[in-house]
């Protein structure tokens, strides 16, 4: 167990809908990273937050947005969902005593 | 050109074999190098973490970094069927803003 939690584990929704994925980092970690992993694809970096502020952006679509709250949990909002958005979404946290990045178990999103 | 290149495999070896997994990269700013293991669509698990060039050993795993060649390796000794997974290399510069991942190598260790 990495200490990073993500909810929900699975999400099934329809095209055009909006969903929110939640991530709680390890205790003491200030940084949260979001990744997308499609079937048989590598990890695609979406966005990073550090202590509530956006620090880096990757290949994140304009339909996607994220934020990190004062209690350091983070949410990834996906809107106007398309079939191609079906993927595993992982968050990872970093900080505290080390520089390593630890991943949560992921949220599996299925868009029908 | 991708920032990080990794052979996707699959790599199939008999139990007990020594496995060598490799990544190359193009960005000389990378300073920290990691290997993750991912079982069947689960969250990647951090295996090894190294800073700059050199070797690091942890049990059956050895991570090697050659910054002059922009090449990193993970060696697995006495491989076990439980090592069957996808192995991802990752690297980051000193600001830790963005981690770059290889596409992953799928390893199958046959009993």
Strand content of chain A: over 45%
The end-to-end span of chain B amounts to 37 Å
The total beta strand count of chain A reads 11
- Rounded to the nearest angstrom, the distance between the terminal CA atoms of chain A is 31 Å
The proportion of strand residues of chain B reads: over 45%
Helix content, binned percent of chain A: under 10%
Q: What level of helicity do the residues of chain B show? A: under 10%
Morphology of chain B: globular
**Number of DSSP-assigned strands of chain B:** 11
Q: How much is the radius of gyration of chain B in Å?
A: 13 Å
Biggest protein-protein contact in the assembly: A-B, 27 and 22 residues
Which segments of chain B are poorly predicted (pLDDT under 50) over 5 or more consecutive residues? none
Could you tell me the radius of gyration of chain A in angstroms? Answer: 13 Å
Q: How would you explain this protein's 3D organization?
A:
The complex is a heterodimer of chains A (112) and B (111). Helices cover 0% and strands 57% of the residues of chain A. By secondary structure, chain A is an all-beta fold. In chain A, strands 2, 4, 5, 6, 9, 10 and 11 form a seven-stranded mixed sheet that branches. The model of chain A has no long low-confidence stretch (mean pLDDT 93). With 111 residues, chain B is mainly β. Chain B has strands at residues 4-6, 11-14, 19-25, 32-38, 45-51, 54-58, 61-66, 71-76, 85-92, 100-101, 105-110. In chain B, the strands form two sheets. In chain B, strands 2, 4, 5, 9, 10 and 11 form a six-stranded mixed sheet that branches. Chain B has a five-stranded antiparallel sheet with strand order 1-3-8-7-6, with no helix packed on it. The model of chain B has no long low-confidence stretch (mean pLDDT 93). Chain A binds chain B through residues 2, 4, 31, 33, 37, 41-43, 45, 48, 55-56, 58, 88, 90, 92, 94, 98-106, 108, and chain B through 32, 34, 36, 41-46, 49, 88, 90, 92, 96-104.
């Amino acid at each position: 167990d990495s200490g990073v939690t993500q909810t929900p584990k699975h999400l099934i929704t329809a095209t055009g809908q909006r969903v929110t994925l939640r991530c709680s980092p390890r205790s003491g970690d200030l940084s949260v990273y979001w990744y997308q992993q499609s079937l048989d694809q590598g990890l695609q970096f979406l966005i990073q937050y550090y202590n509530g502020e956006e620090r880096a952006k990757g290949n994140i679509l304009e339909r996607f947005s994220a934020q990190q709250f004062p209690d350091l949990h983070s949410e990834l909002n996906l809107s106007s969902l398309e079939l191609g958005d079906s993927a595993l979404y992982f968050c990872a946290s970093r900080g505290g005593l080390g520089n390593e990045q630890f991943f949560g178990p992921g949220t599996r999103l299925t868009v029908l | 050109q991708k920032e990080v290149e990794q052979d996707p495999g699959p790599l199939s070896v008999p139990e007990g074999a020594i496995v060598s997994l490799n990544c190359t990269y193009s960005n000389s700013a990378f300073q920290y190098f990691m290997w993750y293991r991912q079982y069947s669509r689960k969250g990647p698990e951090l295996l090894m973490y190294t800073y700059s060039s050199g070797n690091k050993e942890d049990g059956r795993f050895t991570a090697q970094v050659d910054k002059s060649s922009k090449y990193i390796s993970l060696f697995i000794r006495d491989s076990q069927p439980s090592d069957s997974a996808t192995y991802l290399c990752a690297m980051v510069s000193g600001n830790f803003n963005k981690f770059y991942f290889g596409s992953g190598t799928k390893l199958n260790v046959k009993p």
